[in-house]
Amino acid sequence: MAKVVIYDSGVGGLSIYQAVVRVCPQHDYVFLSDNAAFPYGTKPEDALLARVSLVVAAAIERLSPDLLVVACNTASTVALPMLRANYSIPIVGVVPAIKPAALSSISKQIALLATPATIERAYTQALIDEFAADCMVVKIGSSELVELAEKKLRGEVIDNAALTKILTPVLNNKDIDTLVLACTHFPLLATEIEAVFVAHDRAVKLVDSGPGIARRVADLAPVYSGAKLGQRGCSTAMFTRSLNAPQLQTNLADLGFSNFAVLDIPG
């Protein structure tokens, strides 16, 4: 049984947690949310690197994980090389699922929905050039969708008009048949996104990184921990600032979290 830390700035990493637990229920999980510094998507790169370095150092010192999943596209595209150079444990990052989207698209017209920071990074364009050179890719940057996902987990009402507006570039292009949810927050709104498409008589396939990350954890964690199938681990939700959201705590309990804790970040 391995101890796996799944780390994000907000609750978006829960989409990765759900995908991983479906495949590897036997491990112990700590979902770590840096809610004290949320959101990451609007931070300058140097500030983001510094923050990720602080949080990961504190997490590894306190938790001694066997494996770390950086369940944030923004942090992954910026900080993975630094983290892998500094730590010996396996570190799995999340990148936009452009390759599977390009492979599955019939029309070869796909949309990429991500935070503005992920949209603008050269790394994202490099993925498009490598894996979707035969596709037309419409880029949509949205920070508002991150906030909508956070609201959903807190039990607040989702603004359907705002969601529809964000998806307008896809709704206006009837040739787009695949949408990449390139932020871990976005799959938490998959039901609402699909409802918008149904209301506009559109069939658009949603693709995200969760299944690929789950396969990677399944490959890595037993190698380092001798995990056995058939066991069920425990799940802890950890935050960098005290949680004052009863409905979120209830939703976390429904997802299987039995323990809640705070991680103190120095400085």
Automatic annotation (TrEMBL):
It holds the Pfam family Asp_Glu_race. One of its GO terms (biological process) is peptidoglycan biosynthetic process. It is an enzyme of class 5 (isomerase). The active site is at 72 (proton donor/acceptor), 183 (proton donor/acceptor). InterPro entries: Asp/Glu/hydantoin_racemase, Asp/Glu_race, Asp/Glu_racemase_AS_1, Asp/Glu_racemase_AS_2, Glu_race. Its EC number is 5.1.1.3. Keywords: Cell shape, Cell wall biogenesis/degradation, Isomerase, Peptidoglycan synthesis. Pathway: Cell wall biogenesis; peptidoglycan biosynthesis. Substrate binds at residues 8-9, 40-41, 73-74, 184-185. It catalyses: L-glutamate = D-glutamate. PROSITE patterns: ASP_GLU_RACEMASE_1, ASP_GLU_RACEMASE_2. It comes from the Bacteria. One of its GO terms (molecular function) is glutamate racemase activity. Provides the (R)-glutamate required for cell wall biosynthesis. Belongs to the aspartate/glutamate racemases family. This is Glutamate racemase. It comes from Arenicella xantha.
